[in-house]
Design brief:
162 residues, alpha+beta, Trna Endonuclease, Chain: A, domain 1, six-stranded mixed beta sheet, 22% helix, 33% strand, globular
Length: 162
C-alpha cells in the first residue's frame, strides 16, 4: 500500500474536484439548490449551503479507503460551528457526507451528543495532523460512529424535520 505523504495543495485540489463531483448529487438528494460556500468564504466550515442558509453540508472525501471503519472523523470545529448557528436559529441543520471508495455516508448533526437510547453519536479525540505544512498541529476531531450514519443513496431528506 502506498503511504500518503501530506501535500496541502494536492489535497485541496482533490477536495475541490470532489466537491464539484458531489454538488449535483447533493442538490438532487436535498431537492434544492446548494451554493458552494467558496463563492463567499473559502474558509467556511462547510462546503455547501442552501439559499436560505438553513441547510449546511460538509463533504469529506476519503476515496482511498472503504467505509468499513468503526468511526468516521471530521474536525470538531464544524460541530462547534453548528451549535453556535443553532443557538441563533433553531431551523439550522448541518450534515456531514463522507465519500468512500465503496459508497457515500451521511450524518445529520444533532443538538445533543447522544441519541434517545443515551448512546453517543461520536466521541471527541485530540490529534496532531500534518496539514501539508511539514509539521503536525493540534486538531480536535469528532469520530462519528458508523452505525449512526446512513448510506447517502438510502437517505431521504425531510424538509420539515427539526
Amino acid at each position: 500500500m502506498n503511504s500518503h505523504i501530506p501535500d496541502l495543495k494536492r489535497d485541496l485540489k482533490i477536495g475541490k474536484r470532489q466537491e464539484n463531483n458531489i454538488h449535483s448529487i447533493l442538490e438532487d438528494k436535498f431537492n434544492m439548490e446548494l451554493i458552494n460556500t467558496d463563492k463567499f468564504n473559502k474558509y467556511c466550515n462547510f462546503d455547501f449551503v442552501s439559499k436560505d442558509k438553513k441547510i449546511w453540508i460538509e463533504h469529506k472525501y476519503r476515496g482511498r479507503y472503504k467505509s468499513n471503519l468503526n468511526t468516521y472523523f471530521c474536525d470538531l470545529v464544524k460541530y462547534k460551528k453548528f451549535k453556535t448557528m443553532k443557538e441563533k436559529n433553531k431551523d439550522i441543520r448541518c450534515f456531514v457526507v463522507w465519500t468512500w471508495s465503496d459508497c457515500r455516508k451521511i450524518w445529520e448533526m444533532t443538538d445533543t451528543e447522544t441519541d434517545e437510547n443515551d448512546e453517543n453519536y461520536f466521541y471527541i479525540e485530540n490529534q496532531f495532523r500534518d496539514r501539508g505544512r511539514g509539521f503536525a498541529v493540534h486538531t480536535e476531531v469528532m469520530n462519528v460512529f458508523n452505525d449512526k450514519t446512513c448510506r447517502l443513496d438510502e437517505f431521504k431528506f425531510n424538509q420539515n424535520q427539526e
